[in-house]
């Protein structure tokens, strides 16, 4: 809406501008909390990696043949989220590239996040396009036959004449979604090259990852394995103290902040990412409040915010049928009908599906989806004994209906569900 002078006076405008000036002045003059916030990001590679010396040396031992002009083994790196796998791989490969300049051995390291690049075609295309400035060859991310992309890949690799290390982060997600053909292609390619040698570093959160691979792929991998154990609270504290020196100005952290972040993250399976997020968000909250120090109160607030943001992201990315199922449970909760059994939930779920012209899944599949929601912490599905009546699954919500509906309001896929309710007779209205 546009305003002319008849609607708002020039004096009022000047007053609004002055208020804004004073608003920003207040924030600019507030004591600075962060010296370099990027140090607390997951993507940052520090100069030192506390408590990962053993894994660094193991990886260096596997990769050192490159500097002697010999191809290294393929490597699979395992560990839970936040155990330092990715940052350690980046640290070691950065050091390898520096050493390769000293020994005059050409090395290329190509990092691919398989959560984003999640098909064989796109992985091969990304490797080809890494060399486009040198080769003049570029592959579109869709549209070509995979055989043609593979042919271009061989041509490009052979022309570069270097050791090529392809890092496939979250490789388990790629294989579970698209199969292991890409691994088979990359492991057999060395037999078709004379000037270039390719090695793979796979990073996985799933210790059973190799169970998903075809025997022919396993036999061609000839891989070595490096396992990253979770950090304990003391190790997380050391990591945070190291990062905090560069991330914050001196004296802005209360003494209890780092130990509290470490203790909270240690409960989450020793997740360093969680610890770094807690410290960063606590600093952001303190800065927003205009506080001169980051305190334990800010850490508690940060934990609440991160949990809320994480749960929102999980619910937003659920498949459509899981969203509809979850809303059926919300309706039962609002009607006072929880805990409910699987049959009750399925009955409301099918009614909701009919209302939005969605073909319902089978009750058995819905039971599987309830288990998945339970694993994500969105619902609680507990098997209880009914004595001579057998056993049944009691389903409750783990988060409030208000929070779920608030997320759905911003989701065009399921926003229309918010108009639905259940009558006292148990019918959809």
Return Rg in Å: 27 Å
From the 3D coordinates, which CATH architecture of the largest domain would you assign? 3-Layer(aba) Sandwich
Helical fraction equals: 40-55%
Largest sheet: 5 strands, parallel
Task: Domain count, please report it.
Answer: 4
Oligomer: single chain
Q: Give, in spatial order, the strands making up the sheet with the most strands.
A: 2-3-4-1-5
CATH topology of the largest domain: Rossmann fold
Fraction of residues in β-strands: 5-15%
Describe this entry's structure for a reader:
The chain has 429 residues and is an alpha/beta fold. The chain has four domains: 1-30; 53-227, P-loop containing nucleotide triphosphate hydrolases (Rossmann fold); 232-314, Helicase, Ruva Protein, domain 3 (Orthogonal Bundle), CATH 1.10.8; 318-419, Arc Repressor Mutant, subunit A. Helices cover 51% and strands 11% of the residues. It is built from 17 helices and seven strands. The chain has a five-stranded parallel beta sheet, with helices on both faces. A two-stranded antiparallel sheet has the order 6-7. α4 runs parallel beside α6, α12 (272-289) packs across α13 (296-316) and α14 packs across α15. The chain starts with 9 loop residues before the first helix and ends in a 20-residue tail after the last helix.
């Amino acid at each position: 809406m546009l305003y002319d002078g008849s609607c708002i006076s020039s004096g009022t405008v000047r007053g609004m501008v002055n208020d804004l000036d004073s608003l920003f002045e207040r924030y600019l003059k507030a004591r600075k909390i962060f010296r370099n916030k990027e140090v607390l990001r997951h993507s940052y590679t520090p100069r030192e990696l506390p408590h990962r010396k053993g894994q660094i040396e193991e990886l260096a031992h596997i990769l050192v043949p490159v500097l002697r002009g010999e191809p290294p083994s393929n490597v699979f790196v395992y560990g839970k989220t936040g155990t330092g796998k990715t940052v350690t791989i980046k640290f070691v490969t950065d050091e390898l590239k520096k050493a390769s300049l000293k020994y005059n051995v050409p090395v290329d390291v190509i990092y691919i996040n398989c959560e984003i690049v999640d098909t064989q075609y796109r992985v091969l295309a990304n490797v080809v396009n890494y060399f486009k400035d040198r080769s003049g060859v570029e592959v579109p991310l869709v549209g070509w036959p995979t055989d043609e992309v593979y042919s271009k890949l061989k041509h490009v690799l052979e022309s570069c004449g270097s050791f090529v290390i392809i890092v496939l982060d979250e490789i388990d997600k790629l294989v579970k979604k698209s199969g292991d053909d890409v691994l088979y292609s990359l492991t057999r390619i060395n037999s078709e090259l004379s000037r270039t040698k390719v090695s793979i570093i796979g990073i996985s959160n799933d210790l059973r990852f190799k169970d998903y691979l075809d025997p022919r792929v396993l036999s061609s991998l000839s891989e070595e394995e490096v396992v990253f154990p979770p950090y304990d609270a003391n190790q997380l504290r050391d990591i945070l103290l190291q990062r905090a020196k560069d991330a914050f100005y001196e004296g802005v952290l209360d003494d209890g902040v780092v130990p509290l972040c470490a203790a909270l993250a240690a409960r989450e399976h020793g997740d360093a990412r969680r610890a770094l997020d807690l410290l960063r968000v606590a600093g952001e909250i303190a800065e927003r409040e205009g506080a001169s120090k980051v305190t334990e109160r800010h850490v508690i607030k940060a934990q609440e915010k991160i949990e809320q943001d994480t749960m929102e992201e999980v619910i937003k990315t659920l498949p459509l049928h899981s969203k509809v199922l979850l809303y059926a449970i919300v309706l039962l909760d609002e009607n006072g009908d929880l805990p409910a059994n699987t049959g009750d939930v399925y009955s409301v779920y099918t009614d909701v599906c009919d209302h939005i012209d969605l073909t319902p899944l089978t009750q058995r599949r819905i039971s599987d989806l309830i288990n998945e929601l339970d694993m994500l912490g969105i619902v609680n599905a507990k098997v209880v004994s009914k004595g001579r009546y057998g056993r049944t699954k009691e389903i409750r919500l783990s988060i409030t209906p208000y929070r779920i509906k608030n997320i759905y309001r911003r989701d065009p896929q399921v926003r229309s569900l918010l108009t639905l309710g259940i009558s006292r007779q148990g019918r959809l209205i």
